[in-house]
Design goal:
The protein is of the alpha/beta class. A five-stranded parallel beta sheet has the order 2-1-6-7-8, with helices on both faces. It is globular and about 50 Å long. The relative contact order is 0.20.
Length: about 200
């Protein structure tokens, strides 16, 4: 199944999330940038506040489409280091930590993050290829002691789905693919989401 665009994916996702409509003290956390349009629609219909969980992928130095792991404000996760030097990983972690801080300032400005303690937190992205970004977001969120942690995604590879399935209280994924090549293959229209769009959607 292909989604028309990210909004269509959000509409389809919402059908599976009806049980959360009457849940109080819920928060939607989007993984920018692609997850923000999906999360904005869902947050509005659940009447939950929207915030971002910013993580950055550690890209392979020779195959940038392959993620070695991901970095968040609370640390990092490594999928597979292979023959990549520890020095490269360390340098990328430090570089990405700075980028993440800059992105939070850009997206939020002086606005403080939404409190997650004892809340039902729903992490949303537009798809999962390796699962590394979502794992980093889960790790970041768990440190704030949510009451319940949920992941909602339109599509995921089998490998990514298996990585996160036991890490949270519930996973809602409309498609788990054994022939996953890229998130974009499951969308008719998959334009790049800009920082300006993210800022507007968060407001």
């Amino acid at each position: 199944m292909k989604y028309l665009d990210r909004r269509d994916a959000a509409v389809q996702m919402l059908k599976a999330l009806n049980q959360y409509r009457d849940v109080a003290n819920g928060v939607v956390l989007a993984l920018p940038r692609g997850g923000v349009p999906v999360a904005r629609y869902i947050a509005d219909h659940l009447h939950w506040p929207l915030d971002v969980a910013i993580v950055k992928k550690i890209k392979h130095p020779f195959y940038p489409e392959f993620a070695l792991g991901a970095v968040s404000t609370s640390g990092y996760v490594i999928n597979s280091q292979g023959d990549i030097s520890g020095e490269y990983i360390e340098n990328e972690v430090h570089r990405l930590e700075k980028v993440i801080k800059e992105k939070y300032l850009l997206y939020r400005g002086s606005k403080k993050p939404v409190k997650l303690n004892n809340k039902t937190v729903m992490l949303i992205d537009d798809g999962m290829a390796t699962g590394s970004s979502m794992l980093a977001a889960i790790n970041l969120t768990e440190k704030e002691n949510p009451k319940q942690l949920v992941v909602a995604i339109p599509v995921a590879s089998e490998d990514a789905y298996s990585k996160i399935f036991n890490e949270v209280d519930a996973v809602f994924c409309l498609q788990v693919s054994s022939n996953f090549q890229a998130v974009s293959q499951y969308y008719e229209a998959f334009p790049q989401v800009t920082d300006e769009e993210v800022i507007t959607l968060l407001q």
